[in-house]
Design a protein that fits this description.
Number of helices: 15
Number of domains: 1
Strand content: under 5%
Keywords: Cell membrane, Membrane, Transmembrane, Transmembrane helix, Transport
CATH class: Mainly Alpha
GO cellular component, one term: plasma membrane
CATH superfamily: ABC transporter involved in vitamin B12 uptake, BtuC
Family: Belongs to the binding-protein-dependent transport system permease family. FecCD subfamily.
Protein name: ABC transporter permease protein
InterPro entries: ABC_BtuC-like (IPR037294), ABC_transptr_permease_BtuC (IPR000522)
CATH topology: ABC transporter involved in vitamin B12 uptake, BtuC
Order of helices and strands: HHHHHHHHHHHHHHH
Shape: globular
Length: about 350
């Protein structure tokens, strides 16, 4: 089943209670955030978590009967980590949904198309070789340029190899991903040996370096790009039907597709800069959300963001607790789940 057929089927599906699904989703996200901040090597009761949070927003609301150490764990370490998980999950899910529309490919995903690998290449180049020449913005900027370069390379390879079908486009992305990751490995090989261990661990995906003063960058990029994509929901719906239909509706197909690719590269690059490579979120989440709310992008995009945030918060909980007190790279968790989902999706397309 192509993305066009899938969308046509799901467009017709009327969600039974959209508000109900939304309220349940928001409540699930808040509950997941509370649990994510509560669990860990040092368990913190939920009432303490909420007490610290409310006291930070409205000082002296509750009597602080908790230690300074617990407050630091909750506020300085776990809250920014959980919020970064929300940003990254939401961003990657929206990128996957958008790419699946403009390519009409249900397998489109920033990881499979090599965009995440491009972001990793740019981030590694900044971390190991160029240095932070414009401060904290250096890594996100270089990651964005890397993602954008990989995206353009995938488009060029697909044109060169006449890979116009959905499956061959993914193959072109996988090929570019291997090439870019090989180049990234060369950068690591040539870099400072004392820093390579940290970079290699970061490439596996992790949220442990989240800090309050850095969250503004993924927040601004996500808010701006998500707003644009949602405002273009009607155009994304038209793109799932086909280029000819979209053109008859007055949509500049090639320019809009390139715009979505650039926005996807921007979101992916910035998220990769702060979290490393986290795969398969953009592939899985939109398909799951289509089953719940249908294929209309006015609903699909915000619910994909919500579901992606919840998914990555729980993936991080698993990564932090399954081998506690050590952190397992979150990319391993999403890779295991995503790999199984990918096999299921291939089987579903055959049947």
């Amino acid at each position: 089943m192509t993305i066009t057929q899938h969308s046509a089927a799901t467009h017709a599906r009327k969600p039974a209670n959209l508000w109900g699904v939304g309220i349940i989703g928001v409540a699930t996200l808040l509950g997941s955030l509370s649990i994510a901040v509560s669990v860990g090597a040092v368990a913190v009761p939920l009432e303490t978590v909420w007490g610290i949070l409310i006291n930070k927003i409205v000082p002296d609301t509750f009597t602080a009967d908790w230690s300074k150490g617990r407050e630091a764990i909750v506020w300085d370490i776990r809250f920014p980590r959980a919020i970064l998980a929300c940003f990254v999950g939401a961003g990657l899910a929206m990128v996957g949904a958008s790419l699946q529309a403009v390519t009409r490919n249900p397998l489109a995903d920033p990881h499979l198309l090599g965009i995440s690998a491009g972001g990793a290449f740019g981030a590694i180049l900044a971390l190991l070789h160029t240095g932070l020449f414009i401060g904290l913005l250096t890594v996100p900027l270089m990651a964005f340029l890397g993602s954008l370069g990989a995206t353009l390379l995938v488009l060029a390879v697909s044109q060169f190899a006449s890979a116009t079908s959905a499956d061959r486009l993914v193959l072109a992305g996988v090929a570019v991903s291997f090439i870019v990751m090989s180049a990234a490995n060369v950068l690591i090989f040539l870099g400072d040996p004392r820093a390579t261990h940290t970079v290699v661990f970061w490439m596996l995906g992790g949220l442990g370096l989240a800090q309050w003063n850095q969250l503004i960058y993924p927040a601004v990029v996500l808010l701006g790009c998500a707003t644009y994509l949602w405002l273009k929901s009607g155009t994304l719906n038209a793109m799932t039907v086909g280029d000819e239909t979209a053109t008859t509706l007055g949509i500049p197909v090639a320019r809009f597709r390139l715009t979505v690719f650039v926005i996807g590269a921007l979101i992916t690059g910035v998220m990769v800069a702060f979290s490393g490579i986290i795969g398969f979120v953009g592939l899985m989440i939109p398909h799951i959300v289509r089953l719940l709310v249908g294929g209309d992008y006015r609903r699909l995009l915000p619910f994909s963001a919500l579901c992606g945030a919840v998914f990555l918060v729980w993936a991080d909980i698993i990564a932090r607790t399954i081998m506690a007190p050590d952190d397992m790279p979150i990319g391993i968790v999403t890779g295991l789940i995503g790999g199984v989902f990918f096999v299921w999706l291939l089987r579903k397309r055959i049947t």
